[in-house]
Batch of 3 targets.
Target 1
Amino acid sequence: MSARAIFFSFFMIFIAFVLEHLPLPVVVDWFQPAWVMLCITALVLFAPNVFGLWLAIPLGLMMDVEQGTLLGLHVVMVTVHILMLQILYRRMFLFNVLQQAIVIMLLIAMQQLIHYWGLLMINGDSRPVLLWMPAFMSAILWPWVYTVGYKSLRRMQH
């Protein structure tokens, strides 16, 4: 992978962090997709030898600091997400984009559930039923992320 592609990948992660903190009205706040997890998914699927489990610790800690949660909660979430992606890596490319979006929705819903359990055990915080909406919105955006990410990273490599 070229230096331009690695720089583009880290720029993509930066944009994902910015989009995750984009202020939304209260009515649609639960409909914000998990941009960082979508970005991590694209990077792990398109460049598995470059982006692997080592990415979980720095990105998880950055997400912990950014959201003000207990240090290590997002590290566990990102680690489980990347591990599942690496297990499903070969199968994901056999699926069509709709099936990929369903798998992405399940992975991000699992990540949201781990986050919810962690907050529940630490704070006793309870959240509304709309907990699964970021996973649903991420699945809707997956075809666009897949197309843009795949074409951009392939163009950078050649």
Note: The two ends are 9 Å apart (CA to CA).
Target 2
Amino acid sequence: MYTNRLNFTYMLAICLLGFACTADFEDINTDSKRPVATTPDLLLPGIIKSTASAWGARGGEEGLVVTQHAGEIQSTNDDTYRWNPNPQPYTDGYNTLRDVYNLIDVSQDTEGFSSYYGIGLVLKCWNYQFITDAYGDIPYLEAVQGKTAGNFFPAFTPQKEIYQGMIDDLVLANQVLAREGISISGDILYAGDLMKWRKFANSLRLRLLMRISDADPGAAQAGIREIVADPETFPVFESNDDMAALQHDIENPPSRYTTRVGSFDSYRLSRTLEQRLKAMNDPRLKVFAQPISASGKNIYSEHWDDYAGIQNGLSADESESYSPTDDPSKSGSNFISRLGILYACQECNTLSSPVAAQTVIMTYSEVAFLIAEAIQREILPSGNAEEHYQKGIRASFDYYADRTAVGGWDNITNALMSLDMESYLSQENVGFSGNPTANLQKIYLQKWISQFYTGMEAWSQWRRTNQPEVIPGPDAANDQKVPVRFLYPNEIKATNSRNYESAVLNMGGDYLTTRLWWDIADNQ
């Protein structure tokens, strides 16, 4: 009897202890420093950073060499078009898009979170533009539905429909961001300035509309006219203060990996860019490049001859023995300019700055050149193309003067600031003439210069316009044709083969020469 009473007492104590533990279980086992729900302010900075990182990485490799801003020495696979199936920006892009969709989901119908929703739409379009302009048809309508709908094998959406969707989303983003919303946090791009996000949305829409201006001229014309005719409803970038550029605060941001020592030091100034800038006495050359090591100068020289680029498309052996002056005694890397100090990491040069360079996404210069082009091509019914063209040039010079001043490189800043801009603009190969075709080519050339190290935008412009000219080098593969897209990643072929094959059939192949929907210029 005593034993039974003891057992009962023991079991009762256990039960009471269990109830006591259950009552405060969540309080005890919840980390007060870890959020229990996803909030947009926590998602936003990571999305911006990861997208900019991927954007800068591609812009600093294929994006630099394919349109001949830079060339390669030592390892020249990028420069000779020996491009393998590329998992980037595909993999990084969709990894980021998962967070973008989460941001949209948690903010779309939540009171006070409309600003995050609008920003999420802009970030969605930026990511999709990056991916589709690299590959063509990609998952879009069925993308990122593995968790919500169990769709792990999404169909590929034709690029025309993707562009229509992106443009519609940017129209909606502008509307949403115009509403009254609570102040936001976590915004490492614009520090919570919603008007600048609206300007980014409309400027990005302007970019996309111009990109489809040959493939879908009616839609492009209607959209471009709507934006330009009503700047109050559709504000766009008006100065360099508005441009989309991620400011860094670390020593070696991803956008400068290509200028590191070792194998990354293979990216050098292209002879194409060198010759075009020298022909215009354009001091931006001294931003984009450093004097050759053999000159004995450091990061700046007054003498134009101290800057020399490499011919694009050489084999590895030819690149290592290349001489810009055809003098065998003056050949090799010591006679070829590195990229400018603005783009150098601190491991490579102690004079570099951790905060001067930015990952440039879209500039005011680009907007000015887009409007100039629209006027010149009569997409817009009226306007002064030359005025906007000159605004684009001035803004480019001002931007680089500002960034070199931040870096403390006074000689380079002074070279830019001391330029007689009126004389520069009146040069025969810069100023407008009575030849509309020549004027359009000048717009494209200046836009190409201004898009140095800006993602793959210069490549996209060349694919759309065939300007300025790109001549493959002597060792170029791909049948001596400039690539117009990336190959789909091998992982996609293996894991989503049926939809991959349908996309390839729709596009006409999975080759470096397979044109995107909007790419109809005669550039092959």
Note: DSSP finds 21 helices and six strands in the chain.
Target 3
Amino acid sequence: MAILERHTRPLTTPAAPAAAQGRTPAAAYAWAAARIALGWVFLWAFVDKLFGLGFATPAAKAWVNGGSPTTGFLKGTGEHALGGFFSSLAGQVWVDWLFMLGLAGVGTALILGMGMRVAAGAGALMMLMMWAAELPLVTNPFVDEHIVYAIVLVALALSHAGDTLGLGAWWSRTALVKRLPFLK
């Protein structure tokens, strides 16, 4: 009777070492710095539009003084391909609230490193809508800062950037996130 030898091999190949995947300590800190910096971009836009600190928003146009945080940008899209649609949204209360909550939420989540998936999705959606509002682009036929920000937001979530210099690792171990992983 012949004995059949069975050669088996793993169904998956072993994962490459972390360094080979670009997950070095230096890369982790670089992604963390990008996360915090981009978070500050969002959070600062919220604070400046809320109080009109005189940077992008003068005090007279502050949200707390009755100004609309969306009117300036959206009214300026009238000549663009989708300008009619976006101009019609300018100054609407629900749009102002959604925009401001988005700026504050995305900025806070990025700075803290918590809720990176939701922040990346919401922030990328905001950036893509702002990109679409400016079509056709003046300085480049396709890519502007909104597209770059959207890509970086997704990369931050995929690289677990919230785990370094942030609360992401702790947040991912909470019962809430274990039950609802999309909140990671």
Note: The radius of gyration is 22 Å.
